[in-house]
Amino acid sequence: MNFQNPIQWDLDLIKRYDLSGPRYTSYPTAVQFDPNLQPDALVQAALSTTDKQAPLSLYVHIPFCAHVCYYCACNKVITRNRDRAQPYLDRVYREMEYLSSLYDNNRIVNQLHWGGGTPTFISDSQMRELMDHLRKNFNLRDDDQGDYSIEIDPREASDDTLRVLRECGFNRISLGVQDLDIRVQEAVNRVQPLEQTERVLNTARALGFQSINMDLIYGLPHQTLSSFDATLDEIIRMSPDRLSVFNYAHLPDRFRSQKHIQSDTLPSADVKLDILQHTINKLLGAGYVYIGMDHFAKPNDSLAIAQQNGQLHRNFQGYTTHSDCDLVAIGVSSISQIGSVFYQNEHDLSLYTDAIDQKQHAIKRGISLNEDDRIRSAVINQLICHFSLNPADIEQRFNINVATYFAEELTELAQFEADGLITLDKGFIQVTPAGRLLIRRICMTFDAYIPKQTPVRGYSKII
């Protein structure tokens, strides 16, 4: 891997392999989580497989939003009643105490993330309160050396709020931008002037936030190649440390808010591909590194450095540098990854609330990984993070013969090699520049749970 990260745009390959498939923030994916597994059994399996000396990653989900963005597919609660936040936070504190009793063991918290929803929906005093409870229950760092991040809607973050966040210990922010064109913003009910975004960016930099990410979405109503190019010009000028450029999947039957978006205002599939190709070329030309899928970073960013050093990892928060951390997730719909166990809380806010009131936890479903799951997870994580796989690493770690264990998969990989997606050399897999955009499809080869040649319900298109 090098910082050049060349991408070869092969339209024929893209159209041939652009099926639906997982984003592999976990393997097995959440689709395989079993609601029939007992929470106590999941917790005991987590406790028996976790390394109690390893550091932790904490995630807190704040589901509330004051306004609905029509494109959004997140688990959220739309309300302008700020009084709804405190009862929810009170339940979060109860769950937090329960989780601390299970997993704390004074393990240092190297990563913290608040997501949503809109985490800045809660008041500044509630942010301080939430952080105080986290510090009371877990061993948070106080040296500014952890990755402590929060998702921010620039419409919901004053300069005072940013100061409070910095004082609380946050050193990274992710700004939702999506698109800067006013016509697009109006169509998705998210009017957010450039000046508003830039104010938050400049204030955060002045306060000493170490890393700033911006989220963009391509495929939104009224977007054109030229309009998105204008957005990219402004984004590059603002020079965030990281960028996420997501594909909008129009699924109004699954996400009610998307019914407000008229299908005939969406760019065609060909235009979307043109926008993506142009975006990749423009960001690479501006000096960003293609991390994978829809993520870019400056060469000196920790993500790019971790990828260069072979230490990049992927979890429910996306690409991360903290492969050694168990992920303890708190709040409605949040997903924990502890030892060899994944489990997820109730999606519905009222069910989450009732569960915490009755039993201190709200675990709804999960999975305990078997040996095959662990092997395939390691393979998929290596490929999706580093675009290569040395079979000797897997053989040494799991005491298997890769050629025998994955005999069927290697047959499928031979077709990928013939098509120019990968090269194979004595079992060593190297993803080509033409294959990097299709890494999800390559990883699907090693997924034991899903069919490979047909669209899979519940997953987005690969590109």
Automatic annotation (TrEMBL):
One Gene Ontology term, aspect cellular component: cytoplasm
| Binding residue positions for S-adenosyl-L-methionine 2 | Y71, C72, A73, G117, T118, Q178, R190, D215, A249
Question: The organism sits in which domain of life?
Answer: Bacteria
Q: Which InterPro entries match?
A: Coprogen_oxidase_HemN (IPR004558), Coproporphyrinogen-III_oxidase (IPR034505), Elp3/MiaA/NifB-like_rSAM (IPR006638), HemN_C (IPR010723), rSAM (IPR007197), rSAM_horseshoe (IPR023404), rSAM_sf (IPR058240)
A single Gene Ontology biological process assigned to it is:
protoporphyrinogen IX biosynthetic process
Pathway in which this enzyme or protein is active: Porphyrin-containing compound metabolism; protoporphyrin-IX biosynthesis; protoporphyrinogen-IX from coproporphyrinogen-III (AdoMet route): step 1/1
Q: Which Pfam families match?
A: HemN_C (PF06969), Radical_SAM (PF04055)
CDD domains, sorted? Radical_SAM
- Necessary cofactors: [4Fe-4S] cluster
Which regions span the lipid bilayer? none
Give the reactions, separated by semicolons, that this protein catalyses.
Answer: coproporphyrinogen III + 2 S-adenosyl-L-methionine = protoporphyrinogen IX + 2 5'-deoxyadenosine + 2 L-methionine + 2 CO2
Q: Which UniProt keywords apply?
A: 4Fe-4S, Cytoplasm, Iron, Iron-sulfur, Metal-binding, Oxidoreductase, Porphyrin biosynthesis, S-adenosyl-L-methionine
List the NCBIfam families hit by this protein, alphabetically. hemN (TIGR00538)
Q: What does this protein do?
A: Involved in the heme biosynthesis. Catalyzes the anaerobic oxidative decarboxylation of propionate groups of rings A and B of coproporphyrinogen III to yield the vinyl groups in protoporphyrinogen IX.
Under the subunit heading, UniProt states:
Monomer.
Specify the protein name: Coproporphyrinogen-III oxidase
- Look up and give the organism this protein is from: Nitrincola tibetensis
